[in-house]
Design brief:
A nine-stranded mixed beta sheet has the order 1-2-4-3-6-7-8-9-5. The longest helix has 14 residues. The radius of gyration is 16 Å and the shape is globular. It is about 25% helix and about 30% strand. Strand 7 and strand 8 form a beta hairpin.
């Protein structure tokens, strides 16, 4: 999957924005994550505090990556106990749907509490793609966003 194709990317105070010229003011997806998934933390990370301790990505318009990720997350249904050590929280803003991924590759879709399991290759693929988002800056997009905020 190509993540960094033809989109503008901005980093503001640790927040990453995917943008295009026709961007709406409300993000399509909010994603919070800790990579690599095997990272040991001093504080147990769960769905309530990952927004505070993880990195944030806001997708300001629909991206193929999001649909591919959802398909991957829902590809292997299981019945299992609760998730531990949350590493990704993805919020689909328009629908309010939330997906949680733990460090072992268990996935929970919050609306219906459905559980899924990622295979190790899928976990690695998601980790790699999220790691590529960290620290990428497009100064032109940042300047455009700054101008938009000043005119409001």
């Amino acid at each position: 999957m190509k993540v960094l194709n033809a989109a503008l990317l901005v980093v503001l105070s640790g927040l990453i924005f995917w943008m295009n010229p026709a961007m709406s003011s409300e993000p399509v997806v909010r994603m919070y994550f800790i990579v690599p998934f095997g990272t040991e933390t001093y504080v147990g990370i769960d769905e309530d505090n990952i927004e505070e301790y993880g990195r944030s990505v806001l997708f300001m318009y629909e991206r193929p990556f999001i649909h591919e990720l959802i398909n991957m997350l829902e590809s292997r249904p299981i019945s299992a106990p609760h998730l531990n050590w949350i590493r990704v929280k993805m919020v689909l803003v328009k629908t309010g749907e939330v997906y949680l991924i733990d460090r072992d590759g268990l996935v929970r879709k919050k609306s219906n509490k459905a559980l899924f399991r990622l295979i190790p290759e899928q976990v690695k693929q998601i980790e790699d793609q999220l790691a590529r988002l960290v620290g990428v800056v497009d100064l032109e997009a940042f300047q455009d966003l700054t101008r938009q905020r000043k005119t409001k």
